[in-house]
Amino acid sequence: MKAMPLETNNPRVHLVEPELERDAQLGVQWLHGDIGRNTLQLMGVSDEDNKPTTLEQEKQRVTEFIEKPDQLNWMIDYDGKVVGSIWVDLEPKDSMPSPAIHIMIGDPSVRGKGVGFSATSKVVEYLEEQFNKSIYSRHLVKNSAARSLLGALGFKDMGDPYTDEDGLQWQNVKKTNNDFDRDNL
Ligand SMILES: CC(C)(COP(=O)(O)OP(=O)(O)OC[C@H]1O[C@@H](n2cnc3c(N)ncnc32)[C@H](O)[C@@H]1OP(=O)(O)O)[C@@H](O)C(=O)NCCC(=O)NCCS
């Protein structure tokens, strides 16, 4: 579902509501060609599913983004241009408890500039205020950018890495909310 717009601590980075036409076109752009294959690989999409998308498929995906009641979704605006998305699963999955954060900066030219950090730290702050719970995420073991980003925000490894049905190695991480964890012992 669309979440309310949020201002990050970086004046160049804003979290804005998804918009069907704009974001479907961006999705096609981001997932096109070698760059798109690499982005989806970093996100843990299996080779079998790692394919370019069409405008129709992206429209369907963005519509789900907007309508799904168990997910919060924002698009990431950097200097007035939408460069990625960040979303939160509100219900637990087999692979992870909730709330769980996921992020993708679709445009590689803006990676490594602190955009992911600003966006994720704001969503963490928002979730801590809203839910007063620990927050979860996961990354491929080989995804060093995601590991650095989550580590810098205070996420710690939950146990050892594990291998999924596609043979991908994942690490689950958790940002502990001490008040919540003490109350739920
Ligand atoms: C992973 C990803 C979200 C990171 O976002 P990003 O904008 O590229 O990363 P940032 O520039 O914010 O952070 C990168 C580094 O700067 C650090 N950093 C950035 N701003 C910071 C700040 N203000 N204070 C402290 N640390 C900061 C990060 O911790 C990280 O550390 P490193 O230098 O050791 O690598 C992005 O690269 C991406 O979307 N990649 C493709 C898809 C993907 O991998 N998604 C994640 C799936 S789990």
Whole-Å distance between the termini? 31 Å
Examine the coordinates and then state which fold CATH places here, giving the name of the CATH topology of the domain at 6-133.
Aminopeptidase
Give the distinct bound molecules. Answer: coenzyme A
Oligomeric state of this protein: single chain
Question: Order of strands in the sheet with the most strands?
Answer: 1-2-3-4-5
Strand content: 15-25%
Helix content: 25-40%
> What structural category arises from helix and sheet content?
alpha+beta
- Biggest sheet layout: 5 strands, antiparallel
CATH architecture tag of the domain at 6-133: 3-Layer(aba) Sandwich
**CATH superfamily annotation of the domain at 6-133:** Gcn5-related N-acetyltransferase (GNAT)
Overall radius of gyration: 16 Å
**Stretches with pLDDT under 50, minimum 5 residues:** none
